[in-house]
Amino acid sequence: MGVRLMVVDDHRLLAEALASALKLRGHRVLAAAAPAAGAADLVIARAPEVCLLGTATPAEPGVFDPVVRIKRERPQVAVLVLGPVPSPRGIAAAFAAGASGYVRHDERIEGVERAIMKARAGEAAVAPQLLQGAFGELLHPAAQPDDEGQRLLEMLTPREVEVLVRVADGEDTRLIAAGMGIAPSTARTHVQRVLMKLGVGSRLEAAALAARTGLLDRAGPVHHIVPREGGPR
Which segment of the chain is annotated as a signal peptide (predicted)? Predict the structure, then answer.
């Protein structure tokens, strides 16, 4: 018997593709939407049996606020999170918000469907080892507030760390290039890689994230170079 579903994802095309695949397997998809403001309102209004909620940043503070609201106003709706390769902290945050399960974004449609059926039946739709890690994080949360900054720092190369520090100092592409002795196009590429690795969409967001997590303190000082006349070669 098909399940009444809603699919909400950061990327509308992915939401629509998953919705189409589930329709072909006999499920009734009430809507496919991006998680803009109002997505939780839509889920609450339509009251599906299961809501698939996709996110690229499961460990980001506040990302599961819609789940909290959905479960508060429609407790009968099972919310199944679709996310990247999970960390215990991300899964713990999902379950703490009231989610019924966590499925990797790259899971085959058969796996997603099995998780949907488990969630509708009131079961935990997550691999046992991931569930164990999530409960461990809930019972013993990390005490150090700068752990997230260390994790982010380890994702970046030394050159990308320098770029991030310069971005946080308010340097534009020209100044970054001049200070590091590289071409503006290379500086621009480094900035884009930093934004991608941090999972943010702008330099301002990158600077705010770095400051909030203590990443800048861990990065240490950057020795700024006075650009030569004529700019970098």
Answer: none
**To the nearest whole number, what is the mean pLDDT of the chain?**
83
Side-chain half-sphere CA neighbours of 176 within 13 A: 25
Token couple for 38: 């109002």
Q: Which residue has the tokens 């770029």?
A: 163
Nearest 5 degrees, angle CA 44-CA 42-CA 92? 65
Least confident of 134-138, 143-147, 154-158: 143-147
Q: DSSP secondary structure string, 161-174?
A: HHHHHHHHTT--HH
Its pTM stands at 0.57
Q: Which long-range contacts (CB under 8 A, 24 or more apart) does 195-204 make?
A: 197/152, 197/155, 197/156, 197/160, 198/152, 198/155, 198/164, 199/56, 199/57, 199/60, 203/167
136 versus 100: the higher-pLDDT residue is 100
CB 79 within 8 Å of CB 53: yes
